[in-house]
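Have a close read of this protein, sequence plus structure tokens, and explain what the tokens say about the fold. Thanks in advance:
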Amino acid sequence: MEASEGLKHTGIEIGLYTLADIGPDPHTGKTVSAHQRIKEIIQAAKLADEAGLDVFGVGEHHRLDYAVSAPPVVLAAIAQATKRIKLTSTTTVLSTVDPVRLFEDFATLDLLSDGRAEIIAGRGAFVESFPLFGFDTNDYDALFSENMDLFLKLNENERISWNGRFRSSLREAEIAPRPAQSQLPIWIGVGGTPESAVRAGKLGVGMALAILGGDPVRFKPLVDLYYRAGIEAGHDLENLKIGVTGHGYISKTTPQAKDEFYPYYSNYWSYVNRQRGMGFRMSRADFEQMTSPGTALFVGSPQQIVEKILHQYELFGHSRFLAQMDIGGLPFKKVAEGIELLATEVAPIVRKETNK
């Protein structure tokens, strides 16, 4: 089936997310502290809220070169500095967290924020949380499956009895507090595996696609698998939601955006690949190809960004787009300028064009 068949056309949500990476500014060589990075993330969320964006997400890592290991704590701080923007994890490493604690933390966040909390759950691009919390990477998928099953039950029931393989059993356990919303919205983050798309569809939860580059059309089969699995499992189409996340940088013109962002984006992939034991370094020619009009890297003028979002919307019929703009040691002043452009020159056009 076509993705667009299942979507209510009310205009898609536009927002931001951060993974809180801590990298040196390639121009100055200076690296901000974790303290400053978290302060800037809270300020970015406040700016996004005031500018009228819809969602702000915070990711989870357990490394010294990332500032956030506890998204619900940071999101709770953001909740007190904002009024209406939705607050989500991007992503929660579900395989290595106790689902009961996760539910309680985000239910508390939901109460603090007057019903704005969400979770995007994933298996994680890094595996340092496994030994850190006493889990075996051989159980990578089994842990995720069991924890998702338990979390969905916790979301539905004030009291629960449950047996599993990886944590102690529950006997008429009271799960408190309950969120302000009737249930916490939960999405599964999908990086490209068909199995993850099918799982999200079967469970009837949202699917957040991480599309960091290349031709976005290659993700269309995952969207079709998601919808097919959801329908076969008996879920209503209106409850099957798709989000797209990607890297972005906006400036007045596309050439200016490319010139400004290339040093930071090259820097970002240099240290991310080094973290993963790879030595690839991005040339300017690589970057030019990655930012060409038909790709999923959102770098350019507001009009270029609008065109790329709408092209993906034609492919996927998604209901949410989140941009990651604060990477590679980019100074906060540039992040703030990007937030303003996204909110004032991109979001209004995209909402109008998708509200048909």
Q: What stands out?
A: The chain has one domain: 3-354. DSSP finds eleven helices and eleven strands in the chain. The CA atoms of residues 26 and 103 lie 39 Å apart.
